[in-house]
Amino acid sequence: MGENSAYDYLFKVVLIGDSGVGKSNLLSRFTRNEYNVESKSTIGVEFATRSINVDGKTVKAQIWDTAGQERYRAITSA
């Protein structure tokens, strides 16, 4: 990346899967180190980022959490 960039590598990740399997909690645990047993279903899409250091390089992850309900399937079919 450029000299002024805050990261060396950027990964874009989309979490997809059936409703109620834990996609939102996976996102929450990785980005905020939180886990909520009684989390609500995602409506549409949620988004979070986290940067980590790997071998002296800054790696930024942009993570998209999709709703598992069938009516939101169009978000992931591309």
Automatic annotation (TrEMBL):
Pfam families: Ras
GO molecular function terms attached to this record: GTP binding; GTPase activity
InterPro entries with a match to the protein in the record: P-loop_NTPase (IPR027417), Rab_GTPases_membrane_traffic (IPR050209), Small_GTP-bd (IPR005225), Small_GTPase (IPR001806)
Family in the record: Belongs to the small GTPase superfamily. Rab family.
Protein name: Ras-related protein Rab-11A
Record organism: Thanatephorus cucumeris (strain AG1-IB / isolate 7/3/14) (Lettuce bottom rot fungus)
